[in-house]
Amino acid sequence: MGDSMILKYELPKEVEEQIVLGKEERLYYAVPFDIAEDGSWLADSYFVVTTKRLLLFRSGRLAKTYEIAKCRHVKAEAKIGGGILVLEYEGVMQYVVHYSAKHLSRYAYIARGIHILTRGRTEEVVSSEYEKICPDCGRAIPGTRYCPHCSKEGGFWRTFLKMARPYKRKFYGIIFLMVMAAVVTLLNPEVQKRLVDDVLTKGNGGIGVAFTCLGIMFALSVGIVIINILKSYYCTVLGATISKDLREQLFAKIQILSLSFINDRRPGELMNRIMYDTRRIRDFMERTFCNMFTVCFIFLCDIIFMLALNVKLALLTFIFIPLAVFTTYAFRKSIHRRFHLQMKKDDDVNSNLQDVISGMRVVKSYGKEEAERVKFDHLADEYCRVQTRNEVFWAVFMPMVSLLMGAGVFLVIYFGGLDVFKGTMTTGELLQFVTYTQLLYMYLNWMTSIPRELMGLISSMERINDVLAQEPFIEDVEQPVELDLQGEIEFRHATFGYKSYQPVLEDLNLSIRKGEMIGIVGASGTGKSTLINLIMRLYEVDDGHLLIDGHDIKEIKSDKFHRQIGVVLQETFLFSGTILNNIRFSQPDASYEEVILAAKMANAHEFISKTPDGYNTYVGEKGFSLSGGERQRIAIARAILNKPKLLILDEATASLDTESEFMIQQALERLTNGRTTFAIAHRLSTLQNADRLIVIDGHQIAEIGSHEELLAKKGMYYRLVKAQLEMQRGEVAGV
Q1: Mean pLDDT lowest for which of 458-467, 575-584, 605-614?
Q2: What DSSP character marks residue 474?
Q3: Can you tell me whether residue 33 is helix, strand or coil?
Q4: DSSP 3-state assignment of 426?
Q5: What is the pLDDT of residues 489-509, one digit of tens each?
Q6: Do 297 and 182 contact (CB within 8 A), yes or no?
Q7: CA neighbours within 13 Å on the CB side: how many for 296?
Q8: Closest CA to 569 of 659, 675, 647, 663
Q9: How much is the mean pLDDT over the chain?
Q10: Which residues contact 633 (CB under 8 A, 6 or more apart)?
Q11: Are 615 and 579 in contact (CB under 8 A)?
Q12: CA dihedral sign, ordered 444, 446, 452, 458
């Protein structure tokens, strides 16, 4: 139902009986496979891995055995609609099993486990991912730890009650006001009946009693107004508070979730979840919850009073209620689907709008204004079409339900009037009964609008809970090490892939000494940026270990670790605000003098002083009002201010003019002095002063050594340098 992805399934008894483990042999993994060699579906077929053998059970029978000592180069390959496990056995590449797409990640872990065993190591692989399909009910699990349908973690009402728990006192107070509103509303018809029957019809008590009854009715009317004002006020305050708190929780949660979660969702969609979905919860509290208990209490009491007054008329009144309720219930799923689709279309419009506004420079550069207008118009039309269809549906649905319920009032007046003529019912009782009937239908009519509000709330709660229920892949252990960073880094058999079945780096082994500068070289897509992402702990290795100063990075307190890192990227991101605030981002409590010193070390002070407001100059979103070199120098100043122990430079001088590059190189030399540094550079000449160069190819380290050592080897690095020099000569010749 949840937790880590299953790598050791419970095997059927007949399969288990066929596995005889030898001396010092242990069973590590047992997973199903479901596709035969001819492409047909298989049942009761399992792939079992022990510390010494691979066992293949097809339809419950042992079909093949492989000895791990004879296996090499194990790989789980993703194919269309599924995948295959292949390995080199006795020097020959062999296809082992074929499985459907739901097992892709599972077999990626199994392949790693076999790879470890073939190297003579015995550590067991544990999945860091959760199940995608619930093994109990077969439903897709929406990226959360538990299946919402099978576990106590899921369900709308559980989620709503969990959300309401911190505010239970306020909820109790509002519920008390709702009950009071119901009591006051139900008392009025009783006083009205006394006035008609005892005073107006029989003349008992005279004008004094009449005024007393009218005074009580007036007091009850004033009372209900006061109670409703208080109820509305407290519901509004509570709704705004819950909305604010959820918005803060969502933002805080997004901050600690993995980059893969953020990258898998569009910015407009996440903004909608934080702003629009939380606002919908506030609207529900203000418009619907405000009256919910009042309506339910009046509805139940109404039915009891009506049965006590006249059973025959009550039953006539109730004839149309089941039909109205059944109609509303029958359309509940349709309503949910309709409004869920409407919210998705809203996400599409917002995401497209955010993308175009952020990338307006590119849009204008390529003259794609008209194309983007057409695309936005199409999305807006789709949203309008879905919204219009939903509103038309509701405009037809609601009057139909109201008509069904309104028919009951005519029956009550007709048959009740006959009873008054016969003398079996008084005029006051009929008036009281009609009032109760109107209240019943009025509130029942109000209740028929709840599905729309409720389905909107459920959709928003699902979208909010989808974020809040996510388990952060990077999380501190219970008692993390508060490390004062020295800069020694070691990769031990480290493997990582953004998708588990597509590893970017495999079996990485590397040791970095304190204060060493490492240049990272390789073709695009080989894993250079991935390597530094792992060092920065933006992601965690899937297998193996990454050690910082002898400690596993997973055991180090992450916020303190990140405070000791300096980062300068190719695409420098500046926040909307002043230059001062952008430099201070890494060290918010830094003094003005410290900021200026950092800017001078970054060769940024001179150009900052020439801006209209100096360090208080507003740079605009992403800093587009500055040149690329100026943005880069501000980023270097930001890194210097942090006084980092570990420095990451990702293409820090790419795409800059010669003068800017020279100034930035000077600043970087000051910054890297005495610090452990990892540098990725497009121009290989900028890495000549690195202590060692790492050449990454084929998801692994292909070469490692100094600039001179690698040139002498005449291997991959030599070819890269030679190709770049020839390209530069061609550029010079073409000038």
Answers
A1: 458-467
A2: S
A3: coil
A4: coil
A5: 999 988 888 776 677 888 889
A6: yes
A7: 10
A8: 647
A9: 81
A10: 599, 602, 603, 604, 607, 663, 664, 667
A11: yes
A12: negative
